[in-house]
Amino acid sequence: MASTGGAAPGTYTPTPTKKTQRSSFFSDSDVDWLRPDGRGFQQCRPAFFRTGAVNSAAGSAYAEFGNTKVIVSVFGPRESKKAMVYSDVGRLNCNVSCTTFATPARGLGSDNKEFSSMLHKALEGAIMLETFPKTTVDVFALVLESGGSDLPVVISCASLALADAGIMMYDLVAGVSVSCLGRNLIIDPILEEESFQDGSLMITCMPSRYEVTQLSITGEWSTAKLNEAMQLCLDACSKLDKIMRACLKEAASASLD
Question: What is the mean predicted confidence (pLDDT) over 18-38?
Answer without folding.
Answer: 55
